[in-house]
Every structure is written in C-alpha cells, then in structure tokens.
Request: fold
Amino acid sequence: MTADSPVTVDEVAAEVTHPLRRAVLRPDGGDVVWAGDEDPATFHLAARTPDGRVVGVVRFSPAVCPWRPAENPWQLRGMATDATVRGAGAGRALVAAGLAAVAARGGDLLWCDARVAAAGFYERMGFTVVTEPYDKPGIGPHLGMLFPLPVDESGRSGTSALA
Reply:
C-alpha cells in the first residue's frame, strides 16, 4: 500500500472479518465469532487494497458504555490491521468511516476496550483514555477509551467535527 494506492473501506459481512481477527487478535486461538456480530444494528467494515486484499477490519455495534452514560452509545470492537500495512492509513480510514457511520445512525458516544499497545493510535484519532489498565483474560492489558460524537442543536449526532 502506498500513498498513490489508498485503501477503500466498505461495509462487509462479519465472516469477512474473521481471517484478520484470527491472525491479528487471536493468533494463539480463541473465538473470532462474537455475540452480536449478526445483530442487524451491528456493522463491520473492511479496508481493502486496490487489488481487493483485506488489510483491516473493525466492528461497530450499539452497546451501553461501562464508563459514561449516553443516549445512544456504540462500541468499536475487533479492530485489526495487517502488520504489513500498519502506519499506512488503513486503520485511520476504518475508524474515520466508522465514526461517520455511527454518527449517521444517531450515535452520541463511541467507546472501546483498547489494547494498551494500540492506545496511542486511538488517542491520535481523538479518543480519550478513561480507565486505568485492566486485564482481559487470555488477551492482555487494555484501557477504556471514549470518543464523544458531536451533537447539533436539534440533538442529532453530526460528523462536522470529524472532517
């Protein structure tokens, strides 16, 4: 992936995310099919290179935030990028597309359990750390992170602050 061959981001079926989830998030085994994957409100995004190769995936689903009340909170989960393209914009493109889609669905808060090693990426995307590190058994240390979505005067989420 180079600057002149950017990724495209599309909504995909959950099954499309499984190979990268397995390779990046659960290389030592573990479930890559999660409760809520097939919920009609949940959506999955994939970043693809011009030749169609999936190099990044993420899931967004409505979910109560454990750290802050919100009217329409959403969770980012299962973010994974192929190691060969890290730092080239695939993750940024996935999160930006997801933020816009969540806002369009009326979301007012996006939250995630971020691996400690990925917290810097999320902070650069505008997320804020709101917890001390905690362990997710079998996965490792995580931080709770939030991204409040802008709400306009009518009370609807908007994407103007995301541009």
Confidence is low (pLDDT under 50) at residues 159-163. The helical segments are 14-25, 90-104, 119-124.
